[in-house]
User: Fold these one by one.
Assistant:
Number 1:
Amino acid sequence: MKDVLDHIKKTIGLEEEDEVKEEQDTIIVPEHSFYEIIMMKAKNLDDFDYALNQIIEEKTPIIMDMGYLERDSPEDFKLAGEKLKAFRTKTGGEAILLCKNGKNTIIITPPEIKLIRK
Amino acid sequence: MKDVLDHIKKTIGLEEEDEVKEEQDTIIVPEHSFYEIIMMKAKNLDDFDYALNQIIEEKTPIIMDMGYLERDSPEDFKLAGEKLKAFRTKTGGEAILLCKNGKNTIIITPPEIKLIRK
């Protein structure tokens, strides 16, 4: 009886099942991968806006030196601060000051990446 | 003839194939997901060793304030620096100073997460 079944299986094409197995072997890549952290200096408001957009669009965390902006154009620096506040409330992302003392470096992360304080 | 094939398919159990289909529908989660960046203060060498281990084992980037270690135990601070150098050469990970001026904050990333300077 077994032989008959084997023959039947062959005739109706067990290959289908093999194909399915192969499909299962394919690796599924996650929609977003977080393999990059960008480090940059915001020398003007355009730099800052570009960065904020990157964080929202590409889900890339950015470590940004705001020192230049603070020194060279305090008005834009203030504006950037307001944009950051809006970013945090609107997206649930985070912006944390890493160091003051002239350098004024912050890290900004999209809501998908959590900053854990330990 | 088709009816016969259908009957044969039933008798040898097409259910198998259905099960395989279901398996295909399951979502495959990537081995590592990079949804966290840890922020911590290294108050002693144990803190530092724990952090370095987290980076290697869990692939989690860590932003670490080394200021305490530098002030309170310069010897351990020096030792930590050597361990960082070894970590970079051995794993290909990165360690970059974000700010000096007393705070001495660094970011350390596993080789899987690239720090991009812009």
Number 2:
Amino acid sequence: MLEQLGINAKKAAGILTAVHTEQKNEALYAISKALVDHAYEIIAKNNIDLANGKKAGLSDGLLDRLMLNEERIKGIADGCVQVAELDDPCGKIIEETIRPNGLKIQKISCPIGVIGIIYEARPNVTADAAALCLKSGNAVILRGGKEAIESNKAIANIMRDAVATAGLPKDAIQLVTDTSRESSTALMKMKDYLDCLIPRGSAGLIKAVVENSTVPVIETGSGNCHIYVDKSADVDMAAEIIFNAKTQRVSVCNACESIVIHSEILEKALPVIKEKLDEKAVIIRADERARAVCPDTESATELDFATEYGDYIISVKTVDSLDEAIDHINKNSTGHSEAIITNDENNARVFMNRIDSSSVYHNASTRFTDGGEFGLGAEIGISTQKLHARGPMGLEGLTTTKYLIFGNGQVR
Amino acid sequence: MLEQLGINAKKAAGILTAVHTEQKNEALYAISKALVDHAYEIIAKNNIDLANGKKAGLSDGLLDRLMLNEERIKGIADGCVQVAELDDPCGKIIEETIRPNGLKIQKISCPIGVIGIIYEARPNVTADAAALCLKSGNAVILRGGKEAIESNKAIANIMRDAVATAGLPKDAIQLVTDTSRESSTALMKMKDYLDCLIPRGSAGLIKAVVENSTVPVIETGSGNCHIYVDKSADVDMAAEIIFNAKTQRVSVCNACESIVIHSEILEKALPVIKEKLDEKAVIIRADERARAVCPDTESATELDFATEYGDYIISVKTVDSLDEAIDHINKNSTGHSEAIITNDENNARVFMNRIDSSSVYHNASTRFTDGGEFGLGAEIGISTQKLHARGPMGLEGLTTTKYLIFGNGQVR
């Protein structure tokens, strides 16, 4: 069954690669309209998922992510229009050379082919990911969590019908309706059909995909982000940035999870930072030296420094040098986003050069690591790996390149 | 033991990422000189490998790949100088924007970090790969085949000492001296230390790495390349190009393995192509329709169409349309290099657009898919996958990007 989806997707991808931008956009507008037109149908199916979720004891947070209402569906539909309005990332001539033997060599951008997306209980991903894949000329196989299966089936069917009205193959968008663990594992082994697999969700999901997949994976979204308060930091700026990066939205991957602080500024800075974090009752887990300054904190273990809390908790590590800060961060971070707060330009330069993360900030909040904030338009995720795409990944990350070579009989 | 190599490599990578181009080049010149100065030492160790190889019954082809003499060592040393003379791929500002909130966002190129190379019995790869990794600021862990272990140890030690004379960490270059299958498998699981793994060698090696590795892999070098003779082809050009692509060097990955031919030109073209291939006694394995035209051929099976011969053998498949040719090729190719021979510009455009391979030619030999021929300088391999790098992969393929964000207190 899964293999049939693979065959269908390959076929659809072969058609999509040669389709004009206008036709892809027409399909995206049709999808947007269809989602709004069928909102009540989607909501009815979503209610089934919500009822099942409540029975299964899903947390309020998960139920909220699962829930669709008219406003949210309108938001998803608007997202499809926004994707239609972005530049087509395919067909760009990236390089062109004429070799001494007369061969003209063009490096052009083109679709990757067939992309698999494995995700959890957020039905909006079904539409968001499909829209981005369609715009970039890729066929997509979606495999969402069982919690959202009824919503996902409704959304996918509406999108498939809309795609057909624009004259494109329905199989540009396919949903795996078998939500067993086996179907997920089988998808990870479909190297003959899938060109790329993108997991979106928890650290556990991402780990499972990385360990089991023979399809090339793009890891996204795991964020144990650090803010380093250097000895020459502006203390008030440090407190404002840390407060923002920790508390503006605690569940997101670019939230700050750990403060690294220079011992020479510890006594001056930590009480100011703590006072600010107290406004939202953030729990501070600190090492011994920091606790000596702010005793009204919990004791941090090594495990704390490796933890992405996703909650109103933050760890504090005291260091005696910039080098120690860099080593500590490179050891514990997930390679997502880190910041230095300093008035020393040279220290900022060294930090930004040596920190091994997708996005490195000087005097700004880590919360800006986001496709929209970076001006990339919509994003499929934030890559925390180094191959292919790193950091916020927009439409360009869903393309590959190929060489076209024009000759008139050249041989070697 | 392997983990220690990983720790050393991470440490070296942390230093290399902040090193100036001049110092990396100094190390490359030092390596080049040291390889020539110690040529006899390398040859003595290589003789041990050759003697062991003969005892183990290695083929003449393998023994030739394994063999080093003064001339070949000079060639390897010259290669290091050529790499020194290439542009540094790191530190380039790829994009720069200033956002409405005043954040300056730079996307820059930087080293990947730690790269693993798994290869077979070619000791030249030890030096070639290390030089490319060093120039691109990456630490490398080399794991060559047991057949070349004595040569590899000699070359690696000479390179490590030379790197140190330039003030860089020796551990920029490390060799796995345990050549058991277990060490190879363990390397594939070293996700905490390796950022990327590049297998170079046989299809079997590449398959094993793809199936077992949890480290992101860049697949290279498997090439079942096709040349399609369209109905409007210039028959003499087709014969010359096929002859060149098949016979100029049969063992390479960009050699042609299969002819796809339009039925309307079959009778006219195949005898001309066969006459040319007969000059080098190429065995032709053809389908029934082609055999009806040229009976002095062998019968092809479906397996033939999926085979990279690497030998004086070529298959022939007859098709009735451009679409059938494209479908046949996309089904059987390894995504390396394919060509169309045609005088019909529109057919060429459709073929180049829809063929899903790294390099697609119009009226030229597939043999040009090569870093040197494409003007990229040295290459680490030819990627047949779609993520990160596709086609001939030079220094740029050994870099990643990161975002540097400069603020003055911005919060979200």
Number 3:
Amino acid sequence: MPPAYSFLKSQRQNELWRLLKSVRSTSVELSKPLSDADATAQSMPDASPAKWHLAHTTWFFETMVLEPHVPTYRVFKQEFSYLFNSYYDSIGDRHPRPMRGLLTRPSLQDVHAYRNHVDTALNLMLEENISADVLDLIELGCNHEQQHQELLLTDILHLFAQNPLRPAYRRTHSLVRHVERATHTEFQSFEGGLVEMGFDGEGFAFDSERPRHRVHTEPFQLAKRLITNGEWVDFMHDGGYENPTFWLANGWAAKQVAGWNAPLYWEQPDSERWTMTLNGLQRLELDAPVAHVSFYEADAYARWAGARLPTEAEWEHAAHDLPVHGNLAEKLRWRPRAAPESSSPAPQQMYGDVWEWTASPFVAYPRFQPTKGAAAEYNGKFMSGQFVLRGGSCVTPSQHIRRTYRNFFAPDARWQFSGVRLARNS
Amino acid sequence: MPPAYSFLKSQRQNELWRLLKSVRSTSVELSKPLSDADATAQSMPDASPAKWHLAHTTWFFETMVLEPHVPTYRVFKQEFSYLFNSYYDSIGDRHPRPMRGLLTRPSLQDVHAYRNHVDTALNLMLEENISADVLDLIELGCNHEQQHQELLLTDILHLFAQNPLRPAYRRTHSLVRHVERATHTEFQSFEGGLVEMGFDGEGFAFDSERPRHRVHTEPFQLAKRLITNGEWVDFMHDGGYENPTFWLANGWAAKQVAGWNAPLYWEQPDSERWTMTLNGLQRLELDAPVAHVSFYEADAYARWAGARLPTEAEWEHAAHDLPVHGNLAEKLRWRPRAAPESSSPAPQQMYGDVWEWTASPFVAYPRFQPTKGAAAEYNGKFMSGQFVLRGGSCVTPSQHIRRTYRNFFAPDARWQFSGVRLARNS
Amino acid sequence: MPPAYSFLKSQRQNELWRLLKSVRSTSVELSKPLSDADATAQSMPDASPAKWHLAHTTWFFETMVLEPHVPTYRVFKQEFSYLFNSYYDSIGDRHPRPMRGLLTRPSLQDVHAYRNHVDTALNLMLEENISADVLDLIELGCNHEQQHQELLLTDILHLFAQNPLRPAYRRTHSLVRHVERATHTEFQSFEGGLVEMGFDGEGFAFDSERPRHRVHTEPFQLAKRLITNGEWVDFMHDGGYENPTFWLANGWAAKQVAGWNAPLYWEQPDSERWTMTLNGLQRLELDAPVAHVSFYEADAYARWAGARLPTEAEWEHAAHDLPVHGNLAEKLRWRPRAAPESSSPAPQQMYGDVWEWTASPFVAYPRFQPTKGAAAEYNGKFMSGQFVLRGGSCVTPSQHIRRTYRNFFAPDARWQFSGVRLARNS
Amino acid sequence: MPPAYSFLKSQRQNELWRLLKSVRSTSVELSKPLSDADATAQSMPDASPAKWHLAHTTWFFETMVLEPHVPTYRVFKQEFSYLFNSYYDSIGDRHPRPMRGLLTRPSLQDVHAYRNHVDTALNLMLEENISADVLDLIELGCNHEQQHQELLLTDILHLFAQNPLRPAYRRTHSLVRHVERATHTEFQSFEGGLVEMGFDGEGFAFDSERPRHRVHTEPFQLAKRLITNGEWVDFMHDGGYENPTFWLANGWAAKQVAGWNAPLYWEQPDSERWTMTLNGLQRLELDAPVAHVSFYEADAYARWAGARLPTEAEWEHAAHDLPVHGNLAEKLRWRPRAAPESSSPAPQQMYGDVWEWTASPFVAYPRFQPTKGAAAEYNGKFMSGQFVLRGGSCVTPSQHIRRTYRNFFAPDARWQFSGVRLARNS
């Protein structure tokens, strides 16, 4: 990078370039504990192989940024467009999702070569001044890759949980903040009224977080902390999984078919409860937030507890003054986290522990406009049959967490780090 | 009914009694064109046999009204509680829904005897003064039976459509109002703002319509008429069923699996299009509103047309000053309906033609309270995975239509008389 | 029938005419206890509605006999060819088997009108001399209808067993001969050697029973009676359904998926065992032959008992000198049957109690030739994936039982009257 | 191995020891072209990962030979008994077959360590004199591993065929002998009569090949060569896949569901036909024997050709005087094979090209006795729902081919090297 040109580049371009390098190297870091086989297997159609995440995020930059905007760019391998397109119909045919685990070739090493090829081209490109439009696409690509970093970890956990050897991804500290267990949940009151929600600030946000708009909200209360594993055990002991009156009809049907009787990954091989984690099989920590529950379970729990799930408007409103901080330190220097203060006047554990199911189906905000171009398919086409989660989890990259962020999953999904915060009417 | 007591009864009780008699006799009337076999078969798990509708609505009165409130009442047949419970978990076990079509016994004649037994007991009960709580249950039972009257007709249409002989349920006039086909859809503009929605008037409404509450709505426009069959043909000719970019992802998957390429019941045995109706197989009327489309198709159509579906708040707000009138005349004296005036300043065809898919998932209104008692399961437990439809169809009983009414079905349901009205941002 | 012509007709034609009348009227007799709804429902894809059996057997005469051989014959209703073709690909398209239960029209009454129309034409035809070829087809049609008479009864039993009211088809005596329960099964020894099997006598036999041919058989022993319900209870108490080493791999898989733990139709609502029969729910008779077991269960039982199932060659050889007699008296005058003598030197209960599973897959005999014409599809195309049963059951028409008869069903079929006779090596 | 003891050991033990070493090293050789990921993936429930084959065959020796017969043997890793048991119910629970592809751990390297551990123990054991019973088990283990060597290759081919990159397992010569294509198939005549079949010689055979016994066979003719790809193309052009009258009913249903319209692995990306092989995607060789067809297709082809498939008795009788020779040279030195002479008086291509479907269901021979011990489950429990194949394929180890060998697969299996030889009645 000749210094002569460097000062001409916008501050935004320079910041994005740093972000790009950081994001791209974090993905490589995340793949280090994995063998070629680990990175190839797919444990269920909803999950993807680690190798696929590494390649697909690369394909995104190749297809959205390099091919249309760098005339001299040579595609790494033509077939990869078919193999690593996730769901972009406007781009062309794609390899069927449930068969991703059969792609033993290209190898993990080949995928790293693919990554290097694309990184080189991106770096070359960024040495020149580039337009805001293209910078937008690079920024989208970085955020896209951060999403896949989290998915890579949730998918590896799911894969390893299927293996009777219960391998650990990486030995490290506990990922979530514990609470001092109290006899009851404290709630904080909010006045509601005509409030604003959605993104309109500086920096990046997905199309689905826009436009900022007004919603009318009744007075409500939000729990100051997350529901713990210990409280979930109480729910189980009280027949939570046996009494249909706590459950939505679809939830009860899903529970019956799948045979749910505890959160995903809980085991009871002997008199004690254990849970499968990225650290391998661990004793269940009763004061840690419950994770790996579906929307249906979260909703049933809330009804059992005489409360309800918050709407996303309520959640976003309540999070108004809280500092945002994530949990997945760069390069995975995971650290034990300080316990939240139980006497805090504000809600605790809002960011970076577990995704919090809301009562809100994922639909378009009023006057929603999809991103232009192929990325139009990014969020809009998933606006049916999903519920919004807020807050970010212990495996969400720190810089990827924000107050207006709308994550979404189907109501029976359990393999994410998804938990519960209660709300109720004032 | 001894006149000495008659004047003591409340006006409400007398009105409800009249409603009860009318509703109960309408159901019998609706079953007249059906043989025992017609009334027994079940064409898919979502549909129920006509006999089952007749018995289940009777079971509802027996279980909710007579058993708890008439100490001398003798249950008609003990096993019926198991056979004709639809989904009330708090009441006990029930016969599996997909096996309803195997109940060749009791016969249609036995079911009518059951109806008579319960009607006699209800009439005896209503000769005495009864409490408001019980009157509420009777009112709920009448509205419940009206819902099943519509389902009986939609389910018979589905059954007869599976029969290669394409039998007619009943020869009658066309059930929907046609429009004079215009070259484009006219829209009416609304200011929006902080508007009210939900029920708080006199008379009956379901728990899901309450409480009345405020929502903030951006300025919007609503189409003055429904989309016609002819317009749907245009959508088909323009590749509407072949282009995934018009579709939600779940919708596209549903379309692929089920092989949708036209609304349900459309056929093209020769050069002309036909459609299966309660009148048997009929030529497709291009100026009639399209019916039997899923939410996914409605949504794809709207995107293709450069518009969107209205939210239920928008729909309810726009319907503010329109007179409510239904279509299913008492005792099924179906009449041809006057065409709507195309120059009308207000939206036309809002009530009683086809149910109109909205963009709104069926969720609880703020501070929603389920009905007390067993009827608590009536609506609340279906609040996931469904979308709201508004307006009432040509087979909805007239008295059962109201502005705040929230019908709901899964987004892939097509066997209801469900159609499309467009909206767009102002 | 004018006597002037009668003496001209062959004795065979007169006999067949009598058989035809008897068979056709027996079918009508069998339908008498059924309502239109009973006759319409289909309880599983393997079963057919009674109405369908009545119509399909009629369609067989219309399509195979009348249409090709009576130029003046007018088809009753054109659509019936599509509706009532079972599996004859050479004749044309057909209504999908799993949807037979949705044909509420034509009604049972219409089907009887169809039967009368075809009977009239057949009787007119038989007043003239007709060729041996056509007589062969009529004979095939009679035997075909006798097969469907048995199926009509097994299918109605299956339908009624799904109904929580457990209705009875017809109150009558027990259909099977009981045995005096002994402490052990006696076996009769046979020398084997190069023996003959298959049909070559006078009268009717299906193509699959021909040609008569030689097979070499090792010395063997055949049990003198059928396995009883009481013996089956012993098998169950000894873990028969829990121990995979008794079972074929496919059988164990089928058992696991379907949850078999007793013969079909056995129930234990209280401390006693009951079984669903054509007489409704009855106490289990321990000395009656076990019925409604699959090949897999029969085979597992035999292995548990230290024996094996007989091959069909062994069965046919052992049945050499036994008189054939059936059980389903004409017009269903079902009578209690005499108990077999336990001291008999010959095998008992060989005919007319339950079909006996053999160890032999249903394959073609050497030099097998399918029937010519459309009836070529009658048996040959089913020669994979099925096992042979021998002997005839209590609901097989008497005249339809013969020593060489090869019935066949898939190894997981349980709704036929199928039971077990043991064999072992000498 | 101290020479002092060597001469004490039986000749059989020494021969077996050599066989063991050869077999064990061939498996390792076969795994060399595979990455850890290649060896881990499972492309369908019927197939297994290469790593699993390598481990399971090792587990067989550990469980059947070392654990019961070498008191000092220390199991390599306790969990492997659960992971690598295939279907031995008497040994204990096992990992579900469809999830074998999720075992990314143990790695391929770990599996090789497991192999070395067991090989060391086996070699130590064989330095001492061991009993005939244990030698029998070692011999069974060697034959078992040879079966899995073939499966490893067929399963890898299936896996690589799912990969859009169509990778090659190994570049080598064509594996099958071609024929000089003739205008018609020549047949050789056989008298039949009371012939003997089954194994009773020296050396190894599976329990299912015993006992030798007599069967009566009518005079028949057997084709002198296999059906070629070119002849299969003729079948396709003549509507072979469109005309149900050629097909067994179950076969036609399987074809419809799976959409078969050519042998497995055939592709036609352009105007030419190609087929996926262990060499990667190759042009279809018209004179090579057709492979990868199901029993149903083979049977339909035979009916189309006016012939039939041979019974296994016919095949074994016809093979009487032919020299047995396999094709998979030790250590995979695959060589081009000489073309068979078309003027040969004896059938050609009987061994080592493709497995030949017979008309015979896989059932027990008269007086069949399963192997004693856990190996009793080896063959006997699969004796339903499968058809016998004879002759061995181009990927069957040479020493593993013999005249009496009974391979068996379900009639819809297509991923083996399975082809067609015709027979007909004399």
